[in-house]
């Protein structure tokens, strides 16, 4: 059951991208009902999306995005779940939890329903330890601590900007892996949370993700994907590479592990292959780019870091494909739009609490 007083009830928005009726919310009602939802409707704006009774929500479709952002609306992807980042931009809360509409409540090994949102909040409210790995993983959990040899000067940790959750049932695989392992299911519940070390990138999945919007929000741009673009299904990973470089630079932490959700259905691997095809080749250049990129001492806010990254993308990645020129321009447009909609937040997102 949900806590009697939900954690951060007035400080957190739940962002959901969708093209269908949100019946899945019934399963999440005990956990989500106290919170405000931001629903970003993808695809045909004339289609009516039904939301179950009792939820406090606002819904934005493509017409709303065009109306609010005007000519800058072209930075928001169309016909791709990357459209969810519009919800991050219009939120006025400190924290965001985002989930896909095919993700259900999972059970832990004892059979108890997992309150994923509560666990994400606990992760975000707890420090991270990116500078020295603790072999007991999360030292701040009950029953754990820092092991012998862990420097006392690093035990205070750093603010946590991102909590990356995992999934039972359908794994988050790319199309080639889906094709060779069509029946594989993830049944392993690993009771662990860890901080991803400084200098280490990771493939971020957007279907069960929470973050501190004030600390890292302007970097949570899910890129240009889907309709009219040569690539899809790299939206959350692109954001993950960007946020990790920026978190490392600003001294912020990223956690991964608990909580789990139940991912109910696999997307079509042949459709996915068409969307991912270029990305499978491009990522072999993109990853070394992010591993080597260095932000300047002048990059003291998330926005400044992100604009420097956009310039590096234009300078270094556009030789791979003209798409990256367009993506770099969209990254700049995204920051301009963010600052227009969040004028007070422009100075708040500076890597400090």
TrEMBL record:
Gene Ontology CC annotation, any one: Golgi apparatus
SUPFAM superfamilies: Nucleotide-diphospho-sugar transferases
The keyword Lipid metabolism appears for this protein: no
The enzyme's E.C. designation: 5.4.99.30
Reaction catalysis annotation: UDP-beta-L-arabinofuranose = UDP-beta-L-arabinopyranose
InterPro entries: Nucleotide-diphossugar_trans, RGP, RGP_fam
GO process annotations (BP): cell wall organization; plant-type cell wall organization or biogenesis; UDP-L-arabinose metabolic process
Keyword line: Cell wall biogenesis/degradation, Glycoprotein, Golgi apparatus, Isomerase
Coiled coil: none
Keyword Isomerase among UniProt keywords: yes
Residues with glycosylation annotation: 148
Any one GO molecular function term: UDP-arabinopyranose mutase activity
Swiss-Prot/TrEMBL site (Required for activity) positions: 148, 155
Location(s), subcellular: Golgi apparatus
Annotated Pfam families: RGP
Enzyme class: isomerase
Family of the protein in this entry: Belongs to the RGP family.
Purpose of the protein: Probable UDP-L-arabinose mutase involved in the biosynthesis of cell wall non-cellulosic polysaccharides.
Protein name: UDP-arabinopyranose mutase
Organism, as annotated: Pisum sativum (Garden pea)
């Amino acid at each position: 059951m949900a806590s009697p007083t939900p954690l951060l009830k007035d400080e957190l928005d739940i962002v959901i991208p969708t093209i269908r009726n949100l019946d899945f919310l019934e399963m999440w009602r005990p956990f989500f009902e106290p919170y405000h939802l931001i629903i970003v409707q993808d695809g045909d704006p004339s289609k009516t999306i039904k939301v179950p009774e009792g939820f406090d929500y606002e819904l934005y479709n493509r017409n709303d995005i065009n109306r609010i952002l005007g000519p800058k609306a072209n930075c928001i992807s169309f016909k791709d779940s990357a459209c969810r980042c519009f919800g991050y931009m219009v939120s006025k809360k400190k924290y965001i939890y985002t989930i896909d509409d095919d993700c259900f409540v999972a059970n832990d090994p004892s059979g108890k329903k997992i309150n994923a949102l509560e666990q994400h909040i606990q992760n975000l409210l707890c420090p991270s330890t990116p500078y020295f790995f603790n072999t007991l993983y999360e030292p701040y959990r009950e029953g754990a601590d820092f092991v012998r040899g862990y420097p006392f000067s690093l035990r205070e940790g750093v603010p946590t900007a991102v909590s990356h959750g995992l999934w039972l049932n359908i794994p988050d695989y790319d199309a080639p892996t889906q094709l060779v392992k069509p029946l594989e299911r993830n049944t392993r519940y690993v009771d662990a949370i860890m901080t991803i070390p400084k200098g280490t990138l990771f493939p971020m999945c957007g279907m069960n993700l929470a973050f501190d919007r004030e600390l890292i929000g302007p970097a949570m741009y899910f890129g240009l994907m889907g309709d009219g673009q040569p690539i899809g299904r790299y939206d959350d990973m692109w954001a993950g590479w960007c946020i990790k470089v920026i978190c490392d630079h600003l001294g912020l932490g990223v956690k991964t592990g608990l909580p789990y959700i139940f991912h109910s259905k696999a997307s079509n691997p042949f459709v996915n292959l068409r969307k991912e095809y270029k990305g499978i080749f491009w990522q072999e250049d993109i990853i070394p780019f992010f591993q080597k990129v260095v932000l300047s001492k002048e990059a003291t806010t998330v926005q400044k870091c992100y604009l420097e990254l956009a310039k590096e993308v234009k300078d270094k990645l556009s030789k791979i494909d003209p798409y990256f020129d367009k993506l770099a321009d969209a990254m700049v447009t995204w920051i301009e739009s963010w600052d227009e909609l969040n004028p007070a937040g422009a100075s708040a997102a500076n890597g400090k609490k």
